[in-house]
Specification:
Shape: globular
Structural class: alpha/beta
Helix content: 10-25%
Strand order of the largest sheet: 10-9-8-7-11-12-15
Bound molecules: flavin-adenine dinucleotide, FE2/S2 (inorganic) cluster
Largest sheet: 7 strands, mixed
Radius of gyration: 19 Å
Oligomer: single chain
Number of strands: 15
Distance between the termini: 52 Å
């Protein structure tokens, strides 16, 4: 018997121990995981995902929400919506989960160097964008203006609120947040995330935009960014589709001629605009 081929090894889950569990929102948890097989950490690019396996229950794609500069700890932020995500979110310290990956094409951070950066996050969409924000902050001097816009349903559903406050306190980031429904504690904007765009300061022609959230939000955000003058090939969206293999073999994640697992999940708007419109009709 020879060595397993690289492709088959990419299909085998590695054991990772849960080292920390933090409840972010009523239905969202962040897990920190460490590899237990001695094969080293998961080095990843912002926007990539892993296949997370709750043994005996099933496997789901989940974006990496940690810091790309700290690959020793694998961080995932997960909303409990169904059988597998509920099992993953119920994991306790020292439980073991399976991890395959990282997979996919992430946010093209390099494409934004030298120009302005606009980041738009709707709801849980801030989780796949957090590694990008951290990467941009780590090299802040190499970008122009950086605008972060965040939308949430309510003030209580604003993700990573402490970290967002830290970003807000920086003089070199423009951070704007809005909620659909306010409460007496909320001092910020009320309304949809695209309503924040007109007041955001950036030079459209040199801007690279990164957008993640519900598909309808991404469709409106991308269209408005393009209307404002951001080139459609510089507007990047992270797509979600059901997945099985995550390596471009099974076809479950087909999106037009592309596979979300292998060609995405991050795509330029110029490539997928037509597919987005068809799906929303
Ligand atoms: C590339 C990629 C990255 C992802 N990153 C994350 C992440 O960082 N964090 C995270 O929590 N999830 C993420 N997801 C979504 C996650 O994979 C799904 O929520 C998960 O597959 C649901 O599986 P389940 O067995 O728990 O629920 P299922 O039994 O598959 O679904 C239960 C119910 O929830 C609904 N549902 C399924 N997916 C979603 C969803 N995304 N949002 C709301 N309702 C849903 C279903 O329609 C169904 O009604 C990502 C998906 C992809 C493709
Ligand atoms: S999940 Fe199998 S091809 Fe993408």
């Amino acid at each position: 018997m020879g060595q397993p081929s690289p492709d088959s090894s990419r299909l085998l889950p590695r054991p990772f121990r849960v080292t920390r569990v933090r409840r972010e929102l009523s239905d969202v948890w962040t897990l920190e995981l460490h590899a237990t097989d001695g094969e080293g950490p998961v080095t990843f690019r912002p926007g990539q995902f892993t296949m997370l396996y709750a043994f005996g229950v099933g496997e789901v794609p989940v974006s990496i929400s940690g810091d790309p500069a700290k690959p020793d700890v694998l961080v995932h932020t997960i909303r409990a919506v169904g059988a597998v995500t509920r099992a993953v979110c119920a994991a306790k310290k020292d439980d073991v989960l399976g991890v395959r990956g990282p997979y996919g094409e992430g946010w093209p951070v390099e494409a934004a160097l030298g120009g302005d950066v606009v980041i738009m996050a709707g709801g849980l969409g801030l989780a796949p964008l957090r590694p990008l924000v951290r990467a941009v902050v780590a090299r802040r001097g190499t970008f122009g203006r950086v605008v972060l816009m965040i939308g949430a349903r309510t003030p209580a559903s604003l993700l990573f609120s402490r970290e967002v406050s830290r970003w807000r306190s920086r003089f070199d980031l423009e951070v704007r947040a809005t909620v659909d429904a306010s409460d007496p504690t909320w001092k910020g904007e009320v309304g949809v995330i695209t309503a924040l765009l007109p007041r955001a300061t950036f030079e459209p022609a040199t801007t690279t935009a990164f957008v993640c959230g519900p598909e309808v939000m991404m469709r409106f955000a991308a269209a408005e960014l393009v209307q404002r003058g951001v080139p459609p090939e510089r507007v990047f969206l992270s797509m979600e589709r059901n997945m099985k293999c995550a390596v471009g073999v099974c076809g479950h994640c087909q999106f037009g001629p592309a596979f979300v697992c292998k060609d995405g999940p991050v795509f330029p708007y110029s490539r997928i605009a037509a597919g987005l419109r068809i799906r929303e009709v």
